[in-house]
Design brief:
Blueprint lengths: L6 H8 L12 H5 L7 H5 L16 E2 H8 L19 H14 L4 H9 L25 H11 L4 H14 L3 H13 L7 H13 L3 H13 L7 H11 L16 H11 L11 H19 L8 H22 L3 H14 L6 H25 L6 H33 L8 H30 L8 E2 L8
Antiparallel strand pairs: 1-2
Helix pairs in contact: 5-6, 5-8, 7-8, 8-9, 9-10, 10-11, 11-12, 11-13, 12-13, 15-16, 15-17, 15-18, 15-19, 16-17, 17-19, 18-19
Length: 469
């Protein structure tokens, strides 16, 4: 049976940017979209980033892409969506001090601790991967702070202070879980295990997805106490149902990791109702096989979605590598990339491999963009040529994801069994992350070229530009 689609997730995934008025989004048209045409065409929307209503097919403006990518979400401007974005230094120091006290350390030592690589050996088992939980949050303030905590190591203490304030002082339940999760990740660096347990218990009872998962995971694996498969199964069986639609709210799908853990528990021979749910495991395996085939299918000028994603990630990695040489940080970039690859070395299946490659690119991006933003010296002709090429490559990838890859994924899988399951969610999240990486690089180069009075990209982005890459 096809699972109904969470409208908020779909809207967030397919709405990119448009110059000029765009037609209203109609999910019903998506679900019944004409397979002979593109997704955006079936929706009556512009076919890509920056395409204006009267522009010929395949022409999108670099100017509009620049506006989109230099927005507060991707550019260097202050992100006004962030909780307490306008706090003064005195307030931020107080927030940081409260976190440092929780770690029983000085501000300097806490900053050094948090700046280190994540995925620590001393974490509580369910908190070993912070990235796993990024898709669990449903609000705005907490997921943004959590994502920035992961992606911007130099400001982790500040972001954790804001998460702590939002959760422990303002009572935001998702922020309470996020704080407990991060503290659990650094579990061997402090003596506040009881606080973690209390926050997990509170957020579990309030149906916060991460709290539910952490509680069920602990019961199933016997983390911190006796193993209780039956209780874990009871929790997951209810949580995996999601919430039905009401007159005022759309249907809410369960977090994909809850569904995945439920399938693991239900197919465990030690579970008392194992035989009743044995078909779940077979259905999950069949769906994964179908999904993998969809990702890798395609040939000639229409490669599979996996090949498209790999190609675009390769373009961005190549651009970053060339820029690292041009700006004199080649050795540092190589070390950063190797460290990221070592942390993310395990991957199984196309969606996980793609997610790993995109995440490696995302982790090296901070080094590259920070260097570009701080660069004062002028580059020679060869260096300027590298900047020009990388700028165009980043623009191409950002536009390609917005215009073709994300809409193409949605078009391909609207009839996919268990639409938006964990594999699909992972793949689309990777594409969205790739869009952000490309946009941040494009924005940094755009600002650098303006600062150095270099020629910026203008005019339409033509479909034939992809031949250059």
């Amino acid at each position: 049976m096809t699972v109904s689609v969470n409208r908020a997730i779909l809207t967030a995934l397919i709405l990119g940017v448009s110059c000029g008025p765009a037609a209203a989004f109609d999910l019903n048209k998506l679900m019944g979209a004409n397979k002979s045409g593109g997704l955006f065409k079936s929706l009556g929307m512009p076919t890509g980033a920056g395409q204006q209503p009267n522009k010929p097919k395949g022409e999108r403006d670099y100017e509009c892409l620049s506006t989109f990518c230099s927005s507060s979400q991707y550019g260097s401007a202050v992100d006004t969506r962030e909780y307490m974005y306008d706090s003064d230094n005195k307030t931020l120091t107080l927030l940081k001090t409260m976190v440092a006290r929780d770690f029983d350390r000085s501000l300097e030592d806490t900053q050094i601790l948090l700046n280190a690589d994540l995925n620590l050996a001393g974490s509580i088992k369910w908190a070993q991967s912070l990235e796993l939980y990024q898709s669990s949050f449903k609000g705005i303030k907490t997921p943004l702070l959590f994502e920035k905590f992961i992606s911007e190591p130099s400001r982790r203490l500040e972001r954790l202070g804001k998460i702590r304030s939002l959760g422990l002082e303002r009572g935001d339940n998702e922020a309470k879980f996020a704080y407990a999760l991060i503290m659990a990740h650094f579990n061997d660096k402090h003596n506040h295990r009881n606080r973690i347990e209390a926050l997990i218990d509170e957020t579990y009872k309030r149906d916060i997805a991460g709290g539910v998962y952490a509680r069920a995971y602990s019961l199933y694996h016997g983390v911190g106490g006796r193993r209780d498969i039956e209780k874990a199964a009871n929790i997951l069986a209810i949580a995996s149902q999601g919430k039905p639609a009401t007159d005022t709210e759309d249907e809410e799908l369960p977090w994909e990791q809850i569904t995945t853990l439920w399938m693991t528990v239900a197919s465990d021979p030690q579970f008392s109702l194992y035989k009743r749910y044995a078909s779940l495991h077979k259905a999950g395996a069949a769906n994964r096989k179908y999904f993998e085939a969809k990702l890798t299918s395609g040939e000639g000028k229409n490669p599979g979605l996996a090949l498209q994603a790999k190609r675009m990630t390769k373009i961005i990695n190549s651009a970053q590598s060339d820029l690292a040489v041009a700006f004199g940080i080649a050795d540092e970039y190589a070390r950063e990339k190797k460290d990221a690859e070592d942390v993310l070395r395990d991957a199984d299946g196309q969606s996980q491999i793609i997610a790993k490659n995109v995440e490696v690119s995302k982790r090296t991006l901070n080094l590259v963009t920070d260097t570009i933003n701080a660069a004062e010296r002028d580059l020679g002709p060869k260096g300027q040529a590298v900047v020009d090429k990388a700028h165009q490559e980043a623009g191409f990838v950002a536009n390609e994801v917005i215009s073709n890859a994300l809409p193409g994924a949605l078009q391909s899988f609207t009839q996919y069994p268990d639409f938006l399951n964990s594999d699909f969610a992972s793949f689309t999240k990777s594409l969205d992350s790739l869009k952000g990486t490309a946009c941040r690089l494009y924005s940094a180069l755009d600002e650098y070229k303006r600062r150095k009075n270099m020629n910026v990209l203008t005019g339409p982005i033509k479909e034939g530009d992809s031949d250059k890459f």
